[in-house]
Amino acid sequence: MPETRDDPMTLPADLPKPVDDGAADHLQNSRVPDVPLPATDGRTVSLATVNSGRVVVYAYPRTGRPGEGPLVEDWDLIPGARGCTPETCAFRDHHAEIRATGAEVFGLSTQDTAYQQELVQRLHLPFAILSDAQLKLTRAWRLPVFEAAGQTLLRRLTMVIRNGQVEQVWYPVFPPDRHADEVLAWLRDHPADG
């Protein structure tokens, strides 16, 4: 399939790689703030109190919709901005394997729930996406962000949470389309009962 800049599933070969600016250093071993967030499956979820063993939370800037252009003209030039849909599809495709390690999966963005629900339906996601449109968790936890077109967007990062505490952080995440493989490998190498 030829590479096109308009296809959200195809990542251009020349995407700039994000650098670790230290903005997520404080998250390793941190306690998760008890901030309830709306989920696309109708629940209200606080990552501090999810009672399912481990939780994988992958945070991403924003997903687009078919036929919709990028948020800003130079979107592909923002390190780490492009790749939300391929990353989400990879977590979808590895969902059963991640669940088999005992972990629950959530996506997290600052888009509103209605926008996220379209994504869940279109991509047939077996997990919920959490909305921090009010930036309550983002501010309480000082999650790394950037601004584009007047919107505050999360920088791409992933955390494994266990009993309300962060066990593992990946930041920055690159390339996003292969990141779910990395998370799955870590979960298998670090069993929850080990």
What does this 3D model show about the protein?
The protein is of the alpha/beta class. The protein has a single domain, classed as Glutaredoxin, CATH 3.40.30.10. 23% of the residues lie in helices and 21% in strands. The chain contains five helices and nine strands. Strands 5-4-3-8-9 form a five-stranded mixed sheet. The protein has a two-stranded antiparallel sheet with strand order 1-2. Helix 3 links the parallel strand 4 and strand 5. It is globular, with a radius of gyration of 16 Å. It starts with 36 loop residues before the first strand and ends in a 5-residue tail after the last helix. The N terminus is likely disordered.
CATH architecture designation: 3-Layer(aba) Sandwich
* Relative helix content: 10-25%
Order of neighbouring strands in the sheet with most strands? 5-4-3-8-9
Number of strands: 9
- Strand composition percent: 15-25%
Spans of at least 5 consecutive residues whose pLDDT stays below 50 are 1-5
CATH class: Alpha Beta
Number of helical segments? 5
The 3D shape can be described as globular
Q: What Rg, in angstroms, do the CA atoms define?
A: 16 Å
The topology string of helices and strands comes to EEEHHEHEHEEEEH
CATH topology name, in short, is Glutaredoxin
The number of domains is 1
N/C terminus separation: 43 Å
Task: Label the structural class.
Answer: alpha/beta
